[in-house]
């Protein structure tokens, strides 16, 4: 007997909105968490892992409950209504995290509070978002009469489309022009209207349609007023105890100006960029280096100019030209608006050219510019973006831009008296990396340790009296870098003691673009501020050799394969193979995304400009891959579909094992083309193409694995089959669980400790295991 299946006209748009909401919320909430956690790589891994974990719980656990509801329309409407409140509430909870843990703005949270804060704050939104996948799959199955595998594959496709649209819209329109609260309220309004539409039977009456339109109009009017009120309240939570002068968003993050007494500090993503006035830091940043050169004429200064470093540099009478590089244009606008008296005279000096570009990219793209001094005035290498300025690869580029007697300088965190083991390990890495490129290196001890380098030895001045003589001969008026201060900083015993402690050993690694170990050492140093157990954990896992790690991973996977082959037969082995394949691909997908983003950051440094394009390309690839797999495999009869699907999944798993190293090689080889047109092509074509292929790999796999996992389970749409929809979110939950593990390991451990190539190799090994189980399942697929 034929079963009449009800049609539901707005279903595709409802499903697209699920992905649209999730990806925009993820971008907004990750940016908010960056401000609270100061944006180090461990915080990214922890928060992303919590996001994926709770979404997996929502899809796998809560999804089973909503799958049993008799009317799936009501489940979707209820979950969307919860999101209306959950999204803005989550932003408020994140901003209030400091109150719960008793920290002040700018104070870093420990790993424990960081995990707990993310885990609690993201719980409600992510669980509901994950459950929407299962509820949407059930709604699709009921209204379209599709099987379980067809329903989950279709929802996966629509979610990918929504995610792609949301990623582009968030980066290009929403974030530059709206506050986080405004964005949350706009999405809440869309979900509220969708919930009303979903709960309405079609075709709707004119009165119902008019009521829905009136609701939408009211929300459009109410959002701006409600947004301003909530933004004001929530910012008071975030910056409690401080006088918040201004808060604005840029393409690189949140910028806040905070007043404390007679000074104002600029925070970007919760980290102090500069404090105005801070004459001590400004003087030290430039004078130690410039006094080492007998007559500096051309200077490249990267960062810190608004804080006074540029003004101090211009005190040297021999300077004829200064290139000042500042990545974020909002910092320059703040300087012109809030610090006009001190900044505008400096910025308008005819000797100064200001460049709004990444500092490293500027050095690489300036083929005819050579300098007497290059000064990097940036924070420590605590992130992948900052670490790019402390690698041997960058030092080589700097060396090429220096004139024969030129000097290069930067500073990192130090200590006035005692250098801890963790700090010494970090400084050894930096010292060895610098000495691998420059033959002449001097260090100046202090709370900020200044490294000054020259191409050849014998150029740098090692005596405090010589620096004081240069200071007097140039007639430079200083308060801190003075005849009273320089001898103390450069006491011979103090310098020798520091050099002895930071002397590299044979085991000290180099900090490279392809192996950014320095920011892992910085993470170990950061961990010492909280608890001894954190330090021991990070130090221990960082001491593991790659060979030992890969052997341990291979043995664990071999044991899992042996158990799967021994314990499971027939359909159960097929389900185990499909589940393992989805988990491995989930880890691979998030790993490829992180590899691609960090590789782009390491090579070009403006990933935030390209983030929308890369994420959009990734999501479009998922949508195209999913659509192609649905058309090719899900329309066959059950035995044929499963047999062809297992073979295709086996081939796809082999491709997944080969693709990560290939992606890394292509990314780094392409960077060798430094011609401007070549760079434009690589940035706008090669990297988006790699993102498209990466997304397509996972998008193509999910429908295949879903069909095999659910096997002959169908969903006719009848009420008698309600219980069969209870597990519709299971495959999605497995996918997210694999991604959760990958998010932490790849971003916070594998890449900084082992580098890109070794991380890609580990990802390849992970994909071999499900390929073996799939190969052993070919006979079961024949039945």
Task: Summarize it.
This protein is α/β, with parallel strands linked by helices and 783 residues long. The protein is built from 29 helices and eleven strands. The protein has helices at residues 11-37, 41-66, 72-95, 97-101, 111-121, 123-144, 148-177, 180-198, 206-238, 279-290, 305-313, 329-338, 340-347, 359-365, 384-387, 392-401, 421-435, 464-473, 486-489, 492-501, 518-527, 532-542, 546-567, 570-603, 607-633, 638-670, 676-710, 730-776, 778-782; strands spanning 243-250, 253-260, 263-268, 271-276, 298-302, 321-325, 352-355, 371-376, 402-415, 440-444, 446-454.
Descriptive report:
This protein has three domains: 1-238, Growth Hormone, Chain: A; 277-511, Rossmann fold (3-Layer(aba) Sandwich), CATH 3.40.50.150; 544-711 and 726-783, Growth Hormone, Chain: A, CATH 1.20.1250. The protein is built from 29 helices and eleven strands. The protein has helices at residues 11-37, 41-66, 72-95, 97-101, 111-121, 123-144, 148-177, 180-198, 206-238, 279-290, 305-313, 329-338, 340-347, 359-365, 384-387, 392-401, 421-435, 464-473, 486-489, 492-501, 518-527, 532-542, 546-567, 570-603, 607-633, 638-670, 676-710, 730-776, 778-782; strands at 243-250, 253-260, 263-268, 271-276, 298-302, 321-325, 352-355, 371-376, 402-415, 440-444, 446-454. It has a seven-stranded mixed beta sheet, sandwiched between helices. The longest helix is centred in the C-terminal third of the chain and has 47 residues, at 730-776. It is globular, with a radius of gyration of 28 Å.
């Amino acid at each position: 007997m034929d079963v009449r299946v009800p049609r539901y006209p707005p279903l595709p748009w409802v499903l697209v909105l699920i992905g649209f909401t999730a990806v925009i919320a993820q971008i907004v909430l990750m940016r908010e968490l960056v401000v609270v956690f100061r944006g180090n790589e461990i915080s990214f891994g922890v928060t992303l892992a919590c996001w994926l974990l709770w979404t997996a719980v929502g899809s796998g656990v809560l999804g089973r409950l909503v799958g049993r509801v008799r009317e799936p329309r009501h489940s979707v409407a209820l979950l969307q209504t919860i999101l209306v409140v959950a999204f803005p509430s989550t932003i408020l909870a994140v901003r209030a995290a400091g109150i719960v843990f008793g920290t002040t703005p700018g104070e870093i949270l420990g790993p424990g509070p960081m995990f707990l804060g993310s885990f609690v704050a993201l719980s409600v939104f992510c669980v509901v978002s994950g459950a929407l996948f299962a509820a949407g799959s059930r709604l699709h199955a009921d209204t379209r009469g599709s099987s379980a595998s067809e329903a989950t594959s279709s929802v996966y496709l629509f979610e990918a489309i929504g995610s792609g649209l949301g990623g582009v819209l968030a980066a290009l329109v929403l974030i530059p022009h709206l506050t986080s609260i405004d964005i949350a309220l706009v999405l809440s309004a869309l979900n509220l209207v969708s919930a009303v539409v979903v709960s309405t039977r079609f075709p709707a009456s004119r009165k119902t349609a008019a009521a829905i339109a009136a609701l939408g109009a009211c929300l459009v009017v109410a959002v701006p007023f409600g947004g301003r009120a909530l933004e004001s309240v929530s910012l008071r939570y975030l910056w409690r105890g401080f006088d918040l002068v201004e808060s604005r968003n840029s393409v690189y993050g949140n910028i806040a100006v905070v007043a404390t007494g007679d000074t104002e500090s600029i925070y970007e993503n919760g980290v102090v960029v500069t404090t105005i006035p801070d004459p001590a830091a400004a003087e030290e940043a430039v004078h130690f280096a410039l006094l080492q050169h007998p007559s500096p004429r051309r200077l490249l200064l990267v960062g810190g100019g608004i804080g006074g470093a540029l003004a101090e540099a211009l005190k040297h009478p021999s300077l004829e030209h200064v290139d000042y590089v500042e990545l974020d244009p909002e910092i320059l606008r703040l300087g012109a608006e809030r610090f006009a008296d001190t900044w505008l005279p400096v910025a308008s000096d005819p000797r100064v050219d200001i460049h709004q570009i990444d500092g490293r990219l500027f050095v690489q793209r300036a083929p005819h510019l050579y300098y007497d001094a290059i000064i990097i005035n940036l924070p420590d290498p605590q992130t992948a973006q900052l670490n790019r300025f402390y690698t041997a690869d960058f030092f080589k580029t700097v060396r090429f831009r220096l004139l024969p007697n030129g000097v290069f300088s930067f500073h990192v965190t130090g200590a006035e008296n005692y250098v801890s083991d963790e700090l010494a390990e970090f400084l050894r890495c930096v010292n060895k990396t610098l000495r691998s490129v420059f033959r002449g290196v001097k260090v100046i001890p202090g709370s900020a340790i200044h490294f000054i380098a020259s191409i050849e030895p014998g150029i740098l001045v090692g005596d405090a009296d010589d620096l004081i003589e240069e200071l007097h001969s140039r007639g430079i008026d200083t308060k801190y870098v003075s005849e009273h201060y320089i001898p103390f900083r450069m006491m011979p015993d103090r310098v020798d003691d520091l050099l002895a402690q930071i002397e590299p050993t044979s085991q000290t690694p180099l900090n490279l673009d392809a192996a950014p170990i320095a920011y892992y050492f910085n993470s170990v140093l950061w961990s010492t501020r909280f608890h001894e157990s954190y330090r021991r954990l990070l130090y221990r896992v960082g001491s593991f050799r790659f060979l030992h790690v890969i052997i341990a991973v291979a043995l664990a996977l071999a044991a899992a394969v042996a158990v799967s082959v021994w314990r499971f037969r027939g359909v159960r082995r097929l389900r185990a193979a499909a589940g393992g394949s989805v988990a491995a691909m989930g880890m691979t997908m998030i790993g490829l995304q992180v590899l691609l983003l960090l590789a782009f950051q390491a090579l070009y440094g403006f990933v935030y400009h390209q983030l929308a394009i890369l994420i959009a390309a990734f999501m479009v690839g998922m949508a195209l891959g999913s659509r192609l797999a649905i058309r090719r495999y899900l329309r066959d009869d059950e035995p044929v579909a499963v047999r062809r699907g297992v073979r295709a999944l086996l081939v796809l798993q082999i491709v997944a094992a080969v693709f990560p190293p290939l992606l890394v090689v292509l990314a780094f080889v392409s960077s060798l083309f430094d011609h401007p047109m070549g760079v434009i092509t690589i940035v706008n074509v090669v990297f988006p193409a790699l993102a498209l292929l990466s997304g397509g790999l996972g998008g193509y796999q999910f429908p295949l694995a879903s069909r095999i996992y659910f096997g002959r389970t169908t969903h006719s749409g009848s009420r008698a089959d309600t219980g069969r929809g209870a597990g519709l979110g299971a495959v999605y939950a497995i996918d997210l669980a694999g991604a959760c593990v990958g998010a932490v390991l790849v971003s916070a451990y594998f890449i900084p400790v082992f580098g890109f190539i070794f991380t890609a190799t580990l990802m390849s090994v992970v994909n071999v295991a499900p390929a073996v189980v799939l190969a052993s399942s070919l006979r079961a697929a024949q039945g």
